[in-house]
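Internal ticket - ligand job 253, nicotinamide-adenine-dinucleotide:
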Amino acid sequence: MTPSAKTCAIITGTTSGIGAAIARALAAQGHALLLVGRREDAGRELADALRAEGTEVVFHAADLSDSAAPEAVIKAAIAAFGRVDILINNAGLLSHGRAEDTTDAVWNRIMDVNLGAVFRLSRAVLPALRAQGGGAIVNIASDWALVGAKGAVAYAVSKAAVAQLTRCMAQDHAHEGIRINAVCPGDTDTPMLAAGLTGRARAEALARYGANIPMGRVGTPEDIARVTAFLTSDAAEYMTGALIPVDGGATAD
Ligand code: NAD
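stdout (structure tokens):
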């Protein structure tokens, strides 16, 4: 395939929720996209829809807990577009439980996907970003990276570690023009939130969560995607190592 002249963004976890909204936001900014996800059918459906609207897009199926996945992802982006400019580490898994409820298997799985995969893919993309003279990485953390959480110890610790990974890598690569920031969503209306609830029960749960948020509602995937897109843009060219809450004020009190 002839390399594209367009900038290329890799986005993980694009088969649902926030990742799909980020894909649409970055497509609107004119980037070529490599979408990464586990579910071929949903991934290809989104890719086909974006392609029909004029975006250069390739779907790459991968389970990011596979240690061979990062090299394959970068290779796929280079093969399709000849370059990588942006990486969005969005894929993640939620777990509930206090320390005594959390088995080693759950702890290890959550750390491996939420932290390990972000680390491995960020490390793997650096040479490609450097080759373009810089680039942007945005990690989708959580507002539980910023404050303590009740009953979600593995998840909250994994997201706090992503925040620290963001700050450390930002310092290490600022001089290369590689900016690394994190978005910290609060409760956001995706399949992850109120998982298993549908219809009226789901609407009631979301309303209950929203009532505890200063702005009076849970976030939408688009709320998160807009800030993510901003962090990849030239408007954020002097930002690196920032952790941005997008939570309707939930962590402001
Ligand atoms: P979601 O469940 O719809 O999306 C998560 C995506 O990650 C899915 O597409 C899933 O397939 C993918 N994924 C999980 N494990 C993977 C693996 N091993 N390999 C490849 N892909 C994998 O939920 P979402 O709310 O859209 O979550 C997106 C990000 O936002 C996550 O990192 C999540 O922790 C974070 N977040 C969500 C909320 C919320 O309330 N929804 C709040 C704070 C942070």
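Auto-summary: DSSP finds seven helices and seven strands in the chain. The first helix runs from residue 17 to 28.
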